[in-house]
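Reproducibility note. Readers wishing to regenerate the assembly model reported in the main text can use the exact inputs given here. Chain order matters: entities are listed in the order in which they were concatenated for prediction.
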Amino acid sequence: MTVAGSPAVTTNVGRPFLGGRRFSLDWVGAVPYLAYVGLFLILPSVIIGIGALLDANNAFTLDNFRNLSRSYVVKATIDTTVLSAITAFLGAVFGALLAYAIVTGSPNGILRRLTISASGVLAQFGGVTLAFAFIASIGPAGFVYLFAQAHGFDFYKQDLWLFEIPGLDLVYLYFQIPLMVLVFLPALDGIKPQWREAAESLGGNTWHYWRHVAGPLLFPAFLGSVLLLFANAFSAYATANALINQGQPVLAQQIAGALSSEVGAYEPGFAKAIAIEMIIIVTLVTVLYTLLQRRTARWL
Amino acid sequence: MTERSGVEVRLENLVRRYGTVTALDGLSLTLAPGELVALLGPSGCGKTTALRLLAGLEEANDGRVVIGGKDVTGLPANRRNIGMVFQAYSLFPHMVAWENVAFGLQMRHVGVDERKKRALDMLELVGLGRFANRYASQMSGGQQQRVALARALAIQPQVLLLDEPLSALDAKVRSRLRDEIRRVQLEVGITTLFVTHDQEEALAIADRVGVMQAGKLEQLGPPTLVYSRPATPFVADFVGLTNRMEGTVRRGAVEIRGASIPLVHPDVPDGPAIALVRPEAVALASDGDMQEGPLVGTVIAVAFLGAVSRVTVDLGDTTVLVQVPTSAASQHPAGTRVRLELRPDPVLIQREEAVPAAS
Amino acid sequence: MAVAARSIQRTRWIKLQVFRYVVFLLAAIFFLVPLGAMVEFSTRANDGSRTLDYWKAIPSYPDLTGAIAASLQLAVITSIVMLVLLVPTMVWVRLKLPRLTRIIEFMSLLPLTIPAIVLVVGLFPMYIWLNNNLSDSILTLSLAYVVLVLPYCYRAIDAGLGAIDVKTLTEAARSLGASWFTVMWRVIVPNISNAILNATLLSVALVLGEYTIANNLLYNNLQVELVHLARDNAGVSIAVAVAALLFAFALLVVLAFVGGRPRRVHDEPATALAGPLAASQT
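Running the prediction on these inputs yields the following structure tokens for the assembly.
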């Protein structure tokens, strides 16, 4: 690097030296982007990290984290975990069946293309419109409910479960199943027909093939998908809030509640502590997902 | 190795249709015990279909498959006791090499110690004893195919089927593994069907070669015979390079530009015809009168192929490919005048195109 | 014997087809009935007959029309800021700063793993300051929305840039005497026009469906207003939701049409990008 050449060499190098590599100003081009992302993505994260450790007077405190043991937060955490686990598992099972129905068809068939496109849309189809869609169909004034009721099957006889956690179990499947199709399909596509034929020619029947070959191959991908679906459900807010406006049973609603002086007690520090709890859980699950994904990539 | 003698395999009048397409049009083929037959042909000729019918991976619309005197037409693949090596990527990626090889034994309820021992023996046989604990992703393509071979043989099958096992490998590995497969096959003595589109491969490895086209067997015979005495123009064309030269048949020989060459089938009626002449049946000469004559032309290209070279000679109204030792070719660089000499090897003629094309 | 084998494989094939079509049928019911129900609900009168009254009533709710206008403006502003920020940076990084590729990619995809509700918590004090010192317009939401749409737009544009040889094109243009601005505007942008269109449509769809951030930063955008309105008049609310959905589907069709037509070679699969199109986030 530092070649202290003769005077002749130095003069030769003189001019390009300034415009050359060492004093390049190329990085300036990335500044606007980095500044923007720093301001609206990194800064909020820093605010959460620091704010969670401050009380109302900006003095250091651990109370916000201690408050995570409040019974309603613990309950929301457990309920959200159970909700996410149920919808992740059911979404994964149904989504895997749908994906299998897709891969066993023609690889360029209209059914395959249609299902994949629809999954791409529906996997992101959450929030207010989704809540409306279920209210309009199986809500107390929805035509499916009215029809069932008229035929002697009143599924709201006990309680109006659509607007409680069991309702979310059902409604979340609407985006969990398509998401499963999208993330699991590549793994299924990676299963080569030669493996089945090899297993057959070596004397294995269908059960042997699934038990010893396809099952073990797909299991990490399946488990990873369940984790991704879990994280997806765990961080969902809009659907739950549009459907359930009493009691804030979901952890994301607890965060919103702590921010609001309308519904809650306006405890911004506490909101940040719950946010950190959520980030930790989601990150943990995502890391596990990434590890499983890597294993799948090696096989399929 | 367990002593094993091959069994006879008979394919009888097999027909396979996909919708309106007939992939296999009444194929009959008998493999003698311990014999290696290579089915050779362009893609879509039905050779792979034949192999899959024999394996039981597809079902015939008509015809029978008989292995060792037993009709297995109705048996599914997993009860035929057939070893199969696929084109590529057929190793189970979540199992190490020995587990792959032991899979078939596991299906046959062989105990874990016994099957590991036998798997390791098989890996030794294909020269991969050291790789027993590698995953497919940790092995080269050639090594993977050798494991696949070991896996197919571990179940002590009655028949070994090889479905273009070398086509995904690069040239050097291909010829080495080809010889390796032949060595193992002879050592085990198993009746083998080898499917390939590579004529060099088929000629090098097989006891007999079957050339297929459009679902039919065009010719079946020892490699030397298929090459030197092709039964049909298609075989002559597909197996090796061929020059098409106009000539006239006269009493069991064909006259091409003044040279008379005997015919494979001498009993054809006289008249104009196209003769199929191998490049190596033509020699180059530069002695004597080089200015005129029907077989005098100009060298327009020389392709160096190693020990031999391929020389393209322009005769004015047609070009002829000539394959000669490189030392001979080097005396005739592009631009020089040469005289062609046709060796009196019997050639095949083609009647359909006998009408001279206006060129 | 042969007949037996034929029936074994045939039975297996029939079983598989039955399984497939049962699955597709059930999926179609589960996914289409709720969508159809919204249309049905928004056109049902109290006595059970068909009516368009809810649809006709939409303009008579000023809060609603105001929210629609705000969401549309947000969509436009967000798309423009996103493009101005993302396209030059990504081209520049490819040309001059390949070392930064990983960082830019990581930062752009980061919002995927941060739940929107968490982002709100960090943005909350920033928006309090913003309201007090600069502006309390709803349009300031677009500052946060750019971050929200970043991952999807990054992928779309990255796919577009990946399909052309940015470096060679730029060097060719520069050697012919083009300025950097000309390179960008006359060479790069026309070549990734499909990707830019994809990114724009994605961000429009995402912004129109956004609820979490607006609701918790106390702005009344379209989705927030729909929830408010649903408590008074569910019929009108659902009618607007259907309209928004149809608009999103129209965008999807535009995307599939424009994206699938002119380019044969680098035909970016519309399916991959169609992802978040209906785009309310969960």
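We highlight two features of this model. Chain C touches chain B through eight residues (CB under 8 Å). The domain at 62-277 of chain C is CATH 1.10.3720.10 (MetI-like fold).
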